[in-house]
Design goal:
The protein is an alpha/beta fold. The protein has a single domain, classed as Decaprenyl diphosphate synthase-like (Undecaprenyl pyrophosphate synthetase). Helix content is 43%, strand content 14%. Helix 5 links the parallel strand 3 and strand 4. Helix 4 packs parallel to helix 5. The structure holds farnesyl diphosphate.
């Protein structure tokens, strides 16, 4: 059986893949379980996809793990997601180091509970000198929050007279986003059949290729990830120009 992995042209890999991991709740409900069971199984897919990205040589993998809107979910679900995050980070830090993976985080991290923020910063610190895949967790993240935050920072500097309106360029805006040191995604994957962006990386996906799959996140495996890369490699990217 030929696999999608064999079909990947490693000379034309996407540098950055971002994923909206959707469908955990539906996956669990369809099996008669609580939504949290779906999130627990979603961690298996996080591990698979991180491994697949690292072994393929992808530079950046960004996972939308918790949006600013997710704070509005029932308290038990929010608490369970935070616990899962802490547990996973704790358990996986040695594996990240073993595989040369560097952990990064984007979002309004000041809203995370203290124990989650502490574990996250500790793992970021312990993996900071790794030079392979950069795994970026979007936590308490939303694009509108991020863009508002950038406007505030730029406005503050302008009010102090440090910058003028004509100094505002694409580069200056990008430098004030939480993704400031991360290249824009080449490919954005969303699972579970929904075809929306849900407040994710709106500035950064201006020229990103979009890929939607009906699989729910807990069913998403390495082969699905490789299939998305193969589909990406069929696209003709023109960035608004002609070929
Ligand atoms: C979306 O499914 C998923 C989330 C909001 C959370 C994703 C979290 C994980 C996979 C686990 C923890 C992650 C890490 C990085 C350790 P949904 O609940 O919106 O599903 P639904 O649309 O079917 O309701």
């Amino acid at each position: 059986m030929s696999s999608f992995k064999e079909k990947i042209d490693i000379s034309r890999l996407p540098k950055h893949i971002a994923i909206i991991m959707d469908g955990n709740g539906r996956w669990a409900k369809e099996r008669g379980y609580d939504r949290i069971f779906g999130h627990q199984n979603g961690v298996v897919s996080v591990r698979e996809v991180t491994e697949a990205a690292a072994e393929t040589g992808i530079g950046y993998l960004t996972l939308y793990a918790f949006s600013t809107e997710n704070w509005g979910r029932p308290m038990e679900e929010v608490n369970a997601l935070m616990e899962l995050l802490i547990d996973t980070i704790e358990k996986e830090t040695p594996t990240l180091n073993k595989n040369n993976v560097r952990l990064l985080a984007i979002g309004d991290l000041s809203r995370l509970p203290a124990n989650a923020a502490k574990k996250l910063q500790s793992c970021i610190g312990q993996t900071s000198s790794n030079t392979g895949l950069s795994l970026v967790l979007a936590l308490s993240y939303s694009s509108r929050w991020e863009i508002k935050d950038a406007i505030c920072k730029i406005g503050f500097e302008m009010a102090k007279g440090n910058i003028k309106p004509e100094d505002v360029t694409d580069e200056l805006v990008a430098a004030n986003l939480t993704t400031r040191d991360i290249p824009d995604p080449d490919l954005l994957i969303r699972t579970s059949g929904e075809t929306r962006i849900s407040n994710f990386l709106l500035w950064q996906i201006a020229y990103t290729e979009l890929y939607f799959t009906p699989s729910h996140w807990p069913d998403f495996r390495k082969e699905n990830f490789f299939e998305a890369i193969c589909d990406f490699q069929k696209r003709d990217r023109r960035f608004g120009k002609t070929n």
